[in-house]
Amino acid sequence: MRADVLVVGGGLGGVAAALAAARAGRSVILTEEFDWLGGQLTSQAVPPDEHSWIEQFGATASYRALRTGIRDYYRRHYPLTERSRAWTDLNPGAGWVSRVCHEPRVAVAVIEQMLAPFLGSGRLTVLQPYRPVAADTDGDRVVGVTVAHRDRDERIDLVAPYVLDATETGELLLLTGTEYVTGFESQADTGEPSAPAEAQPMNMQAVSVCFALDHVDGDHTIERPANYDFWRDYKPDFWGDRLLSWRSPHPRTLEVVERSFTPNPDDDPLAVNADQRLNPGDGNLWTFRRIAARRNFTDGAYDSDITLVNWPMIDYFEGPVIDVPNASWHLSKARELSYSVLYWMQTEAPRTDGGTGFPGLRLRGDVTGSRDGLAQAPYIRESRRIRAEYTVVEQDLSLAVRGEHGAVAYPDSIGVGMYRIDLHPSTGGDNYIDVGSCPFEIPLGALIPQRVENLLPAGKNIGTTHITNGSYRLHPVEWNVGEVAGLLADFCLARGESPRAVRGTPRLLADFQDRLSAAGVELRWPQVAGY
Question: Which InterPro entries match (predicted)?
Fold first, then answer.
């Protein structure tokens, strides 16, 4: 199969890339390994992690259209109370992590609506469920990619003049021989205050297998996991308690703190102020990433709130899942950990009334679209990352380093983002790294490999470091990166130029930035302070 643009990976970056290229008039092939498009927002079941100004600015117009579409979908199809229906910034889950916490399948529906015109016209072809297994190259160019069906013996060779890697782990970087890095870079290489003295390429952030829960009458205890005893007794050196407990390090201070857990607290959804600048919101884990607040809906519509478990105790940091021969084994252990956390909560977790266990917790695989009850895909925070023409380093955006000067202003800015430098515990035994950040820009140089000419990263595989990935891996930034990659492929096809030439030629760069602005991509921040 042939197209103008091939996008491998249907996460947020891949969807944004395909949408941008198709809107520009290009023929596009988009592949995705899992049943749902949307990646971390859908198949990985992670509610949006967003900055404090997301309702006003700091994201692309198409990303805001996605968020608006999610709210409109609830208003059209869900039995909201009149009060919630009139809520301009409707937060369906009234979660504290985001102003638009919602059920994953709603995002799937909205993404499909956004792509529908191009599927109908034949301009866009979506191949699901397919994963990349091989690639052909000719010198510094990628000629084609072979994808294999997940469930049957079928392969398809895909050819396009521009190939975008929107996979969660940068799979095409490996398959095409594109130079990349993994894990911690050394302080000698990057000058980053939080980097180690020596590079640690196999030291990567924890992965998490999320799941959805409600709390209803009855005993919904799952079967005891085979290795439950191991996880129940597991106490990492830096954790301060057993992993399966309500106690864990505070990401910003590393002080061991105890979080509460109160299912269905009957709080007022409109009283939730989901602003990470003011409150991280993780005091009560139930409401932290809640994706359906029953009081947003008419009486009887929901028997319980629904909460999304992406909490400290499900972080799996026993080993990396990239560039190791036993990646599938580690992913299976990560799933085992998630089941063990659920079983512990159902049977042994301490309650405020002095008792133990919450047998009314019910696993909601119907919410995550999976037969086994967990998310369809693991949440992989850290990808392979291209060796880029420009690598974003900690001192480009750290609030402690930059202070009132704000993040570095890049002459080749192709978008903006904001999130604290937020690193989860890692496979090398490191605790959280959580550093204040300035609102930052995304440099075009971070999207251009040092050697390969026609492969573009379209997700978390851009030229960041292990440390700055902590800010650049979040939902709106991934979407921005993917959208720009799709627009860059179109621009290069139209002009007969390479991505490298666009960055290196002032006239071309100015024209491309004008093209981005016209498409609703913000290139600069207004005057706002970091946190």
Answer: FAD/NAD-bd_sf (IPR036188), NadB (IPR005288)
Q: How far does CA 329 lie from the centroid of its chain? A: 22
Spatial distance between the Cα atoms of 79 and 116, rounded to a whole number of angstroms: 25
Quick one: 305 exposed, middle or buried, by C-beta within 10 A (0-12, 13-18, 19+)? buried
Q: What tokens were used for 211? A: 């799941």
Q: In this structure, is the dihedral angle defined by the CA atoms of residues 195, 196, 198 and 201, taken in order, positive or negative?
A: negative
**How far is Cα 288 from Cα 279, in angstroms, rounded to an integer?**
11
Q: Is 190 left (phi over 0), alpha (psi -120 to 50) or beta?
A: alpha
Task: Give dist(CA 29, CA 297) in Å, integer.
Answer: 39
- Reduce the DSSP state of residue 525 to 3 states and report it: coil
In the 8-state DSSP scheme, what is residue 297? B
Residue type, 120: G
Tell me the C-alpha distance between 52 and 261, whole Å: 25
Residues in a beta bridge with 138: 141
Exposure string over 16-42, b if 16+ CB within 10 A, otherwise e = bbbbbbbbbebbbbbbbbbebbbbbbb
- Quick: pLDDT tens for 439-487: 999 999 999 999 999 999 999 999 999 999 999 999 999 999 999 999 9
Render 238-294 in DSSP notation, one character per residue: TTSS-SSSSEEE-TTT--EEE-B--S-----GGG----TTT----SBHHHHTEEE-G
Alpha-carbon span 259 to 285, nearest angstrom:
7
Q: What's the angle, vertex CA 455, arms to CA 46 and CA 164, rounded to 5? A: 35
Relative to beta strand 5-8, strand 162-165 is parallel
Q: How many residues comprise the chain?
A: 531
Provide the terminal-to-terminal Cα distance of the chain, rounded to the nearest Å: 47
- Angstrom distance (rounded) from CA 163 to CA 160: 6
Specify whether the CB–CB gap between 293 and 284 falls below 8 A.
no
pLDDT in tens, 390-418: 999 999 999 999 999 999 999 999 999 99
Peptide bond into 129 cis (omega under 30): yes
Closest CA to 376 of 223, 248, 507, 209: 209
Alpha helices (H) along 405-472: 469-472
Interatomic CA distance for residues 344 and 341, integer angstroms: 5
Beta-carbon count within 10 A of 109 CB? 16
Q: Give the amino acid at 419.
A: Y
Give me 401's structure tokens: 């380093």
Q: What is the CA radius of gyration of the chain?
A: 22
Q: Which of 16, 22, 13 is nearest to 5 (CA)?
A: 22
